[in-house]
Design goal:
heterodimer; A: about 270 residues; alpha/beta; Rossmann fold; six-stranded mixed β-sheet; four-stranded antiparallel β-sheet; B: about 375 residues; mainly alpha; two-stranded antiparallel ribbon; 13 helices; 4 strands; globular; binds adenosine-5'-diphosphate; binds magnesium ion
Chain lengths: ~270, ~375
C-alpha cells in the first residue's frame, strides 16, 4: 500500500463501471455479483442492468440463482463480490439492509406467496401502504381519506374487493399471489421484483396476471419478473434474460433467447 | 362500493367489556365485602383472602405483559420474572426506607441487613427511595431500561426463537445470582421484608390491604385496556405481522427491531408494576423471584388461558395459581411441579389455543359468515412463524 492507503479503498477507487454511461442511466445495475453458499456458487459474476420504466423477464432452470439474485438486490443476502447500484448509480445496495432498501423503493413478491395470514385482506394492504413506518407514530395512526381512496383503487386493480374482510390465510393460492401484488402496489415502489407470480394459477388467472403486470409497468413502475411459464413470458412481451448457473446465458427478445443453442440445451430442451 | 368505509370495530368488543366489568367489579366488591361486613357474616371476605386474590391479580397483570410479546410479537421471553422482580425490589426499597427507627437495630437510615453487615452508610443506589414518587418512577425505569438495553442488542442482532428464549432465561438467572450476594446491597438471600407502612398507612391494616387490592385490580384493568389498544392499533398490526412473517415485514419497509423493542419495553414496565403491587401484599421480595422456573411458570399460565387473547392470559394466571394454592397446601404438595408440567403438556397436546382461545374459535365458527372478525385468531402455543 502506498500513501493513498490513508483513504478508504472504495473512495480512492470508484467501481470501474461507475463512469460508464449505462450505469448512470440504469435504475438497477448489477456487475460481477458473486454469491457462494458453502463453496457453491449460486451467483457467478452476474451482470445486468434494468432501465427506469422497463419491465424485464428472467427465466432459467431451477437453481439458476434467480431467487438468490432477488435476495441480493433486496439486502437479504450480501454478495461476496460485485456491485449492486440503484437509482442511476447513486445508491450502493450492498451497504443497506432490507428495511432501507424497501424504503428506497424496491418492493418484492416472494416465490412462495407471503401475506400476513392472520390479518384481513384489507389490513394486509393497509400495512403495505406507502407512508408512516415509525413504531411510535404508528401507535396513534389514523387512516386518512387519501389512504382509503388508494386502497379502493388497489382493490379495483387486484379484484379482491369482495374478500376485503376475510382473513388473508383463508384465500386461495392464486388470490394470495394477487394480494401480494396488491401489497406491492400499495408500497408504490420504483422497482418491483416479482418471483414466479403465476405458479399454481389457472390459465385464465395467468393471463390476467400478465395484464396486471403490464398495467403496473405502464403506470411507471419498473418490473423484474422471474417466471418459468413461457406462455406468460410471451404475454408480457418484454426483454428476456436467461440465467444459468448464476450468470447470464442469453439476453434479448423471447424469440432471440429461445432460439439460442445454449438456452435450448440447458433450459428449454429439444 | 368502497371496501374501506366499514364500521370501526370498537376498542374493547363484548369480550373485553365482560373482562373489564369482572375486574372492576372485583375492585369494588372484594374490598367492600372485607371492610363493610362483620367478620361473622357468610359473605365476609377475610383479609388474608383479599391479599391472596390481590396476589393472583398481580400474576394476571404479569401474564398479560407476557401475552403482549409472546402472543402478538412471537417473543417467547423466559425472563419476564426478572422485570417483575425489579419492580418488586424498587417498591421493596421504598418500603424498607419507611421502616425508619422501627427496625430491630433502630437505625434511622440503614435497613437492618446493612447494620448487620456493618455498613456505615447507605449505598448510593438507595438514595431517593425514601421518596415515593422516585420509587414509583424506578418501578418503571428499572425494568424498562433493562428491557431497552437487552432488547436493543438482542433484536438488532436478530436473535429470535429458541436463542432469544435462552438468553432471556440467562438474563434472569444472572440477576438471581447477583441479588443473592450480600454485597450487592439488596438484602442478599433474605431479600427485603418486615415492612411497616406504605404512604403512611399501616401495611397490615385491613383498609390498606383492601386499597392495595383495589389498586391492583385497577392496574390490571388499565394494563388490559393499554394492551388491547396497542394490539389493535396500526402498531399492533405490525406486531402481529412480525409474529407471522418477520422477513416480509422488513421487505415492506418497517424497522422490525424498533417494533419489537417498543413492545418489549412496554411489557417489561407492566411486569414491573405487577411486581411493585405484589410486594406490599405478600410482604416480602427476595431473589427467588428471579428464578428461571418462575418465568417458565408464567408461560404455562398464558398457554393455559390462551396465548394471544390478553384476557385469557389473565384468566390462566388466576386459574393456575388458584390450583397451585389448592394443591400445595395439601397432601399433593410435593407433586405440584409434576402437575404443572403435566398441565403444560396436556394443554399443548389437547388445547393448543388455551381456554379462551378455544372458546373464541368455537364462537367464531358458530357465527361464521360475520364479515369482520372481532379479533385475529389466537395463534396457539405451537404456531410457528411462516418463514
Ligand atoms: N441459503 C442458502 N444456502 C445454501 N444454498 C442456497 C441458499 N439459497 C439458495 N441456495 C442454492 O443456490 C442455488 C440457487 O438457488 P435459487 O436462487 O433459489 O434458484 P432459482 O430461484 O433460480 O430456482 C440453488 O442450488 C440453491 O440450492
Ligand atoms: Mg426461485
Amino acid at each position: 500500500m502506498t500513501d493513498t492507503a490513508a483513504f478508504p479503498v472504495e473512495a480512492a477507487e470508484p467501481p470501474k463501471a461507475m463512469t460508464e454511461k449505462n450505469l448512470t442511466e440504469a435504475l438497477l445495475y448489477l456487475d460481477g455479483v458473486t454469491v457462494t453458499f458453502d463453496g457453491f456458487r449460486a451467483l457467478n459474476a452476474l451482470s445486468f442492468t434494468v432501465d427506469a420504466g422497463e419491465m424485464r423477464a428472467i427465466i432459467g432452470p431451477n437453481g439458476a440463482g434467480k431467487t438468490t439474485m432477488m435476495d441480493v438486490i433486496t439486502g437479504k443476502t450480501r454478495p461476496d463480490k460485485g456491485d449492486v447500484f440503484f437509482n442511476g448509480g447513486t445508491t450502493d445496495l450492498t451497504k443497506l439492509d432490507e428495511t432501507e432498501i424497501a424504503t428506497l423503493g424496491i418492493g418484492r413478491k416472494f416465490q412462495k406467496p407471503t401475506v400476513f395470514e392472520s390479518h384481513t385482506v384489507i389490513d394486509n394492504l393497509r400495512l403495505a401502504l406507502k407512508g408512516q413506518r415509525g413504531a411510535l407514530a404508528n401507535i396513534f395512526k389514523r387512516e386518512t381519506a387519501q389512504e382509503r381512496v388508494k386502497i379502493d383503487e388497489i382493490f379495483e386493480t387486484i379484484r379482491l374487493g369482495e374478500h376485503a374482510h376475510r382473513l388473508a390465510g383463508a384465500l386461495s393460492h392464486g388470490q394470495k399471489q394477487w394480494l401480494e401484488i396488491g401489497m406491492l402496489l400499495a408500497q408504490d415502489p420504483k422497482l418491483l421484483l416479482v418471483d414466479e407470480p403465476v405458479a399454481g394459477m389457472t390459465d385464465a388467472e395467468t393471463a390476467q396476471t400478465a395484464e396486471l403486470l403490464r398495467e403496473i409497468n405502464a403506470n411507471g413502475h419498473s418490473v423484474v419478473v422471474v417466471e418459468h411459464d413461457m406462455t406468460f413470458v410471451r404475454d408480457l412481451g418484454v426483454r428476456v434474460l436467461c440465467l444459468h448457473e448464476g450468470s447470464v446465458l442469453a439476453e434479448g427478445t423471447l424469440d432471440q433467447v429461445s432460439a439460442n443453442e445454449r438456452v435450448i440445451e440447458v433450459y428449454l430442451g429439444r | 362500493m368502497s371496501q374501506t368505509d366499514t364500521r370501526k370495530p370498537a376498542l374493547l368488543g363484548t369480550g373485553g367489556l365482560v373482562f373489564l366489568a369482572i375486574v372492576i367489579g372485583l375492585a369494588v366488591l372484594v374490598p367492600a365485602l372485607n371492610l363493610l361486613l362483620p367478620a361473622g357474616s357468610a359473605l365476609h371476605v377475610p383479609t388474608y383472602l383479599v391479599s391472596l386474590l390481590g396476589k393472583y391479580l398481580c400474576y394476571a397483570l404479569l401474564a398479560l405483559s407476557v401475552d403482549l410479546i409472546w402472543g402478538y410479537v412471537g417473543i417467547l421471553s423466559l425472563g419476564q420474572g426478572a422485570f417483575f422482580a425489579l419492580g418488586g425490589y424498587a417498591m421493596g426499597m421504598y418500603l424498607m426506607r419507611q421502616i425508619g427507627t422501627r427496625g430491630v437495630y433502630g437505625d434511622p437510615v440503614l435497613p437492618d441487613f446493612m447494620v448487620f453487615l456493618n455498613w456505615k452508610e447507605l449505598p448510593w443506589f438507595w438514595y431517593g427511595f425514601d421518596w415515593f414518587p422516585f420509587a414509583a418512577a424506578m418501578v418503571l425505569l428499572a425494568p424498562g431500561l433493562l428491557a431497552l438495553v437487552f432488547g436493543w442488542f438482542a433484536f438488532r442482532s436478530r436473535v429470535t426463537g429458541v436463542y432469544l428464549s435462552i438468553i432471556t432465561q440467562a438474563m434472569t438467572f444472572a440477576l438471581l445470582l447477583a441479588f443473592f450476594r450480600n454485597d450487592m446491597g439488596f438484602g442478599g438471600n433474605n431479600g427485603l421484608t418486615d415492612f411497616k407502612d406504605i404512604l403512611g398507612f399501616n401495611i397490615q391494616a385491613d383498609g390498606t390491604r383492601a386499597a392495595l387490592f383495589a389498586l391492583t385490580a385497577l392496574a390490571l384493568a388499565g394494563g388490559y385496556v393499554l394492551c388491547r389498544y396497542l394490539v389493535r392499533s396500526h402498531f399492533g398490526k405490525v406486531l402481529i405481522a412480525i409474529r407471522d412473517a418477520e422477513t416480509r415485514v422488513r421487505f415492506t419497509g418497517y424497522r422490525v427491531e424498533n417494533y419489537k423493542l417498543a413492545a418489549f419495553v412496554v411489557s417489561a414496565c407492566l411486569a414491573g408494576i405487577a411486581g411493585a403491587l405484589y410486594v406490599p401484599q405478600v410482604g416480602i421480595i427476595n431473589p427467588s423471584e428471579f428464578s428461571p422456573a418462575n418465568s417458565i411458570e408464567i408461560i404455562v399460565w398464558v398457554a393455559v388461558g390462551g396465548r394471544g387473547t390478553l384476557a385469557g392470559a389473565a384468566l390462566g394466571a388466576v386459574l393456575v395459581n388458584y390450583a397451585k394454592t389448592y394443591f400445595t397446601s395439601g397432601m399433593l404438595a410435593p407433586y405440584w411441579l409434576f402437575m404443572l408440567g403435566g398441565l403444560f403438556v396436556a394443554v399443548t397436546l389437547f388445547l393448543p389455543k388455551g381456554i379462551l382461545g378455544t372458546f373464541l374459535e368455537w364462537r367464531a365458527r358458530r357465527s361464521a359468515g360475520s364479515p369482520e372478525p372481532d379479533a385475529p385468531p389466537a395463534p396457539g402455543i405451537t404456531a410457528k412463524p411462516a418463514e
